[in-house]
Predict the 3D structure of the following.
Amino acid sequence: MTTKTRVKRLSGQIVDLHRRAIFPGTVEWAGGRITAIRQDARVKEQRLIMPGLVDAHIHIESSLLPPSEFARLAVVHGTVATVSDPHEIANVLGEAGVRYMLSDAKRSPLKFNFGAPSCVPATTFETAGAKLDAKAVARLLARKDVRYLAEVMNFPGVLGGDPELLAMIATARREGKQIDGHAPGLRGGQAKAYAEAGPSTDHECFTIAEARDKLAAGMKILIREGSAARNFDALAPLLKTHPDRCMFCCDDLHPDLLVKRHLDEHVRRALATGADKFDVLRAASVNPVEHYTLNVGLLREGDAADFIVVDGWKTFRVLRTYIDGVAVASGGGSRLKRQAPKLANKFKARPVKATDFAVKHTGETVNVIEALNGQLVTKHLKVPAAEIGVKHDVLKIAVVNRYAPRAPVAVGLIRGFGLKSGALASSVAHDSHNIVAVGVDDASLAAAVNLVIAERGGLSAVGPRARAVLPLPIAGLMSAVEGREAARLYTKLDRYAKKLGSKLDAPFMTLSFMALLVIPDLKLSDRGLFSAAQWGFVE
């Protein structure tokens, strides 16, 4: 005796992104797949039924949550899939870190699509916890659950013919898998040469002129709006001129924002610009699914039943999210059960002293990093030495090697954080994830760093009257607590950082990128001050 699979139905205004049509009708599904889509003029429900949303490039670790917990928050906003680069945890734990993400992701129905990190470490000018060479990347790309070669950040290496990078690209091509790009500021002939080498996307454009150069080179552009890098306003016009070449992504999204929004916010803002609704929704679903050949349904008969129900075009509030025909979110809440994560880490740093942050300088001027609100890029300033201090917002920035117990502390100067007292520290420090800290005095810097070391990873803030820390025991990158609780603790830290004087929208997210050497121009690694423009260290 056989049992028939139960057929489920939902009626509303069906948004067909392939025929570019909206019509009243009913979606039917059984066994996780859509069995029929019937047009029916008698349907009066005005709710919209459309394909689920796909983030085309996000680092799950930057949500400070493991994949299974990230999913619990993301599905509320209509997210059914992500294209995720696990290079944050790979820089800490190597291949074992990638396997950790793949394993944890399988505990959730959300369709995570991980890539093989191509730049671990991102450069040779910093200390990471692991290295993935061409052979390791080839092993990962041979796996069916590794879908693409993740962002090739070392674009000077690509342009210079680095044999390891070229071997990784060749492997991806041989495996029939896409190659993600990462080339901030690359223009003209260099952009063309980079694209010809293999990378097919870029999420680092911060001007529309740069995006147009990369489009001319044959690349697709990911319109990014995250916690630190916010390029939506600059790039949104592409939805009207090159809609078939655009996708949406967050790249990095801290938990305080993830509880409020994900790609649903991209869609709302894009619709508000007057862009065609079908083009907007295709950028949020069809384009990434087709580019990466993802196993994600697009609301067609025979597809996986991955779709969302939305209240209307103006508010674009997600009412329900379905993955493989199962309701995973409804009424603004997640229906996914909380699952305690396993812990994995690598943390050898020992407590530091205030004297470790002392620095001598000679000459009348000093090199200073200028942090920019809402951007990953920085400026390289030459500032009179007399301006060092709180009055002119020229503060100390430091990077502490977390993989060696007694390594010297690297110290530089930075403008843009605006702190009036205290210090901030973080073991989320792209991409090698040493400890990065900014502060007004050496004692505060040492105190903030030591809070992170005591937890074997975390975010901390130290002021004249209080100290706070958010522990990140999973690789020093992710919290082990429930997602909304992590968001609450992060929000508390963020407010405290602003109470200490920071004017940045996301001071901890901005701090986490001050050690990312492959983003121009001036950054600080555990080995010293580095200029991406000169591709080398400066004093």
